Amino acid sequence: MQKSNTTRPSRRYGRLAVCAAGGALALFATLVAAHAQSGQGSRQRPGLRDGTQPALAPTKPTVACPNEGAPLLKLPEIVSEKGILRGTLALIDEQQRISSSAKGTPGPCAPQYVRNFRSAAAPIPASDTTVVPTTYADPVPGPTLRAQLGDIVQLTFLNEVNSNHFDPNIDREACIQVSPGGGFGGYPGQDEYPNCLHASSTANLHFHGTHVSPTSTADNIFLQVRPLPRNNAGDLVISPDQITTGLNTFFENCTKELANPKNQWPHTWSQLPSQWSSQQETLLKAYDAGTTPYNPPGQPEGQKLWPPNAMLIEEGGWPQYYVGAFPYCFALPEYKEATWSWPPKAGVLNMGQSPGTHWYHAHKHGATAINVANGMIGAFIIEGKSYDGALNEAYKGYTVNGKPWNTRDQPVIVLNQISVAPNLLGGLANVDFTVNGRLRPTVNMNPGEIQLWRIVNGSGRSAAYFMPPQGLEWYQLAQDGVQFANVNYQNSHNKPFYMASGNRVDLLVRAPSLPTGQPSLSTDVKIQNVISRKAVKTTGGTVTLFTVNVTGQPVGANGQPMPFLPSAPPQPPFLTDITDSELSGGPIPPLVFNSAPSTSGNPGTVHTINDKQFNGEVNIRVPLNHAQEWVIKNATTNANGGPGAIDHPFHIHVNPFQITEFFDPNERVPGPDGVPSDKPRYVVAPATADNDQCQLDPSKPSTWVPCKAKPFANGIWWDTFAIPSGLAVTAGTTTTIIPGYFKMRSRFVDYAGVYVLHCHILVHEDRGMMFEVEVVANNTLAPHMSHH
């Protein structure tokens, strides 16, 4: 393969300026013929502008909204069989009736085109009779994936989006520009590619919460899959069967190679079936040349997709760009040892996957926010004997409506904020959460019944602050798909909790027994829709997320309700606290997240980490099989025109972490119910602190530390944690920023490769608040190719 004679710039996101590779393979003649027969040639897409400016969103007719209070929709599932989770996830587009409900106040519904995940093998259940009939679909997350520890995941991802249903300006490898009158809201002038919204029909999958390889066909978020090509009538010219030719063989080989889950196979492009990889090369070259039907007439040199693929293949790397389909194949590593020890051992698992509630979503940089807001998300339940098995054993003998209690029958609750606004700069601020696609549905419980609620905050923006339950009881079992230590379980009784974007919470929830003569009880589960802990209100500000109806036959024994677990299920051995003696290979400098006004003179806010935006280069290198402690800070305040309090949700892929220290300068002393009171935890000198408070001296950073901190023990494991906002203190003409921060410890074990950490307010990630992390095997921290 001939090398390009150009210099090597960043590779990711189609910015490599190289000459187009010549020649089309014979397969593509079919596409060209179909294009010619359509009679359209280079005619622009029907019904759309010429692409020089974004169009103002047309006024949509309103349609009847679904009735609120419908039963919680049970999401369809793709379930593993005989050790393999096999299925096809198709990204499609459809018109849905989208509600503009905000702050708990119902708004009108309008038909809007959105993109979402569907599977023919897991059809959406028919709408309940209480839902107002419509010719439009209602929002529903993608199917729930349900696997077990040790399974092999084999998912064929198909991109069948019809790009003609969307303005072409939001489907280009370039920033959305400002249109006269504000069309799409107008991006600030300092936004530069790739850190802006773009290419919203290009997609991939991120398996959020999985401890798996970040490379090749596993949790590789650098992949970009373009839609299947269509003719000008909008019809597919390559079928899903054609685009997946050879993948069955690949999945068979992958299953054999991943018998050892630490084997990060496939390693090279040549290990994919040649009939599939050759077809991909053909389609990408045709896309670059503009000969694909229903495609802009040729890509600019810096946006061609095959040349960067070719360079990566030649260098032994993994190609980034695809058309129509991609095979995801990886193992869910099961830790089988009865004990755990450090340092890591060669050739064996040192951590393993935690059983619990995880999720998946599209993660194409620049399009992550809009794709998630469209509904491109779904739950990913990973079962294990130590967790699901323990719960089923604890509650065997209890029946609910004639069925034995089982974790598979428990509610999976996926939250999202649905939107079709392509810029999302402020469009989600007050948008209500949907629950499995519905607004304020109903969860049914029997008197005395205990349910396991698996809750996913799949929103790309807001946190849901869950208020203490009224009429119910709950204990928290797990955070971010990782089981609680028993002491944390015991301390969680009826406590409020803060679910940032990306967080998951598992709750055991008990309905009350009903007095004689009372056939039912209705109570609301209430939240506050916030973007920082500072925004949580002592009173007011709550909205109903869903309603629990308690009715039917009591569940329990001897007139007593089902009992809560006396202790939490045992944690896997690898979830021991990370000790001081383990730490090595660091530390790295603190990571400072900040949303602040642009310093370039242009209007708008810039989102950075350590004053840098994502540029496709590796920012942090960590040796494999080491544990490190990092300091994560948040300098975002209202100083100098800043956006105010934002608790940026810090998310890192592959390996979970523990919090060893937490400092929120805006913290308030909790009231008796655990909800923050109006009393500040910290007072600024020279004010005097009382017994509940500590003093912050803006001139002494040594005072910017947690108030009455306790020793680290029984740490909760997270993969997403909201960094507390900073505090701006002004004295005279001087403003001091006291940042919020936390310290985290993580074991970087089992899997080498490049992945990312970022803010999970996804419009911040899309606009640059993301770093690359490379975990390097053999402790050789050598230079790595760029990924831009």
Question: What features would you describe in this structure?
Answer:
With 788 residues, this protein is mostly beta strands. It has three domains: 330 residues, Immunoglobulin-like (Sandwich), CATH 2.60.40; 182 residues, Sandwich (Immunoglobulin-like); 203 residues, Cupredoxins -  blue copper proteins (Immunoglobulin-like, Sandwich), CATH 2.60.40.420. Helix content is 10%, strand content 29%. The protein has nine helices and 43 strands. Strands 15-14-17-22-19-20 form a six-stranded mixed beta sheet. The protein has a six-stranded mixed beta sheet with strand order 28-27-30-41-32-37, with no helix packed on it. Strands 1-4-11-10-6 form a five-stranded mixed beta sheet. A hairpin with a 2-residue loop joins strand 25 and strand 26.
Note the main attributes of this structure.
six-stranded mixed beta sheet; 788 residues; disordered C terminus; disordered N terminus; mainly beta; Immunoglobulin-like; single chain
Short description:
The protein has 788 residues and is mainly β.
Instruction: Provide the β-strand percentage band.
Output: 25-35%
> Roughly how many Å apart are the termini?
22 Å
Q: Based on helices, strands and strand pairing, what is the structural class? A: mainly beta
Q: Describe the largest sheet.
A: 6 strands, mixed
Number of structural units classed as domains: 3
- Strand tally is 43
* Helix residue percentage: under 10%
Specify the CATH homologous superfamily of the largest domain. Answer: Cupredoxins -  blue copper proteins
CATH architecture of the largest domain: Sandwich
* CATH class category label of the largest domain: Mainly Beta
Cα gyration radius (Å): 26 Å
Described by its quaternary structure, the protein is single chain
Shape: globular
Mean pLDDT: 87
